[in-house]
Amino acid sequence: MLEVSLSSRNFVNNLSIFNSGIKRATLMKDPTPRKLKMISIMFLLAGLWGLAIGIFYFQQPNFFLTALGLVNLMLGIYLGFRQLRKK
Which terminus of the chain has fewer CB atoms gathered within 10 Å of its CB, N or C? Predict the structure, then answer.
């Protein structure tokens, strides 16, 4: 039978396992040009889609979709600029 210990020390030890895995991961430290290009395209498309839906789809413009579309658009532009500067 599996025993579950709710002591704070055991809980902290289990969390340290997950934290050490996250600290070792190289998620976006040095992305490949292909990965950077795909992510920037995804951000640009999501931003354009959010702007179009937020402004034109609803009878009254939806502020939240428009704002999030702008955020995605800016992230796509930033990553595209980063890719151009990397070459």
Answer: N
Q: Domain residues of the chain, as ranges?
A: 28-86
- Cα–Cα distance for residue pair 40/77, rounded to 1 Å: 7
Tokens of 80: 């595209």
4-7 own/partner pairs: CB under 8 Å, 24+ apart: none
In the DSSP assignment, the letter for residue 53 is I
Over the stretch 58-67, which tens digit does the pLDDT of each residue have? Answer: 888 888 888 8
* Crossing angle between the packed helical segments 33-52 and 63-86, to the nearest 10 degrees: 160
Task: Report if pTM > 0.90.
Answer: no
Average pLDDT over all residues of the chain: 76
